[in-house]
Amino acid sequence: MDVLIAEDDLTTQVILQTLVTAWGYRPVVTSDGREAWEVLQQPDAPKLLLLDWEMPGFSGLELCKKLAEQADENPPYIILLTSHAETDRIVEGLASGAHDFIGKPFDKAELQARLSVGRRMLEMQRKLIDAQQQLAYEATHDALTHLLNRRAVLKALQALVSKSMSEHSCMSVALVDIDHFKRINDSYGHPMGDEVLIRVAETMQTCLSADDSLGRFGGEEFLVAIDSDPDGAARLMEELRTKIAEIPFCLADQTVNVTVSAGIASLSGDDSLRLDDLLAAADRALYQAKADGRNQVVL
Ligand code: GH3
Ligand code: MG
Ligand code: MG
Ligand code: MG
Ligand code: MG
What we know:
Elements: E1 2-6, H1 10-22, E2 26-30, H2 33-40, E3 48-52, H3 60-70, E4 77-82, H4 87-95, E5 100-103, H5 108-140, H6 150-167, E6 170-178, H7 181-188, H8 190-207, E7 213-218, E8 221-226, H9 230-246, E9 249-251, E10 254-256, E11 260-268, H10 275-291, E12 297-298
Parallel strand pairs: 1-2, 1-3, 3-4, 4-5, 11-12
Antiparallel strand pairs: 6-8, 6-11, 7-8, 9-10
Helix pairs in contact: 7-8, 8-9
The site of 3'-deoxy-guanosine-5'-triphosphate has 16 residues, from β6, α7 and α8.
Catalytic activity: 2 GTP = 3',3'-c-di-GMP + 2 diphosphate
Protein name: diguanylate cyclase
Cofactor: Mg(2+)
């Protein structure tokens, strides 16, 4: 683990550097608070900080305050080094964002122990953040296709509808349903059906731009929130339909032909259509595509 040492006294600096290296840390050394601040702005900055209270540029205390203002979701762990270890100073340091302090001259074993506490706290913080990110991902993504799930893609759709309203621009929504998917399951088995869902999702994703959102709406049905007018949306969905129909899905030594049908509904920024109405219109168009023979896009 990297440790930032910000200490203007060269002798202390060398001692700290030698000690933390012997304890298995990688020291990053600065002699000035401003330089330390610059190091801390780097993407992979050290998270364990040993800051001298009194130094040029910014003092250790000022650094604590500036770091607290940044409201980092993965904040560093700060140990203040001070030659004035009076209670009111310690209180001021801790109140300004420091997590711990050590008085100068410091005891080596105590410093090592305090650094270990910092390392443990940072490891715990990292685990919590990772778990939180994993939960947030799972709450918004489909476990099979890794596309946005129904709730998340509806949220993206709502955001696009709101943007279209406020900018008086056009947007579209497409509902895409795999044709005769039940037959694929029945002929090749459910695991192969799952594989087809994954492949269709991947193929669709490659056709979309960053402004469009794709999600699994349910079973073998997908929703695309498209940031364009009906013509643009129809072109896009036609491209997507052709691509899926033309690519042979080679799965476990078998070639499965897959086609999709799509229904599109659009909003011209001046409409005041509700989301439900828009989805109902797309669903009607999809129903029409199915009724007209499948493997087609209906606007
Ligand atoms: P249509 O062309 O009218 O859409 O016919 P279809 O067979 O695709 O439609 P239907 O609604 O009759 O059947 C959809 C099937 O999709 C039924 C269901 O078992 C299957 N399915 C839904 N979710 C999954 C899944 O996650 N994995 C697999 N393998 N099958 C699924
Ligand atoms: Mg100093
Ligand atoms: Mg159906
Ligand atoms: Mg279907
Ligand atoms: Mg369906």
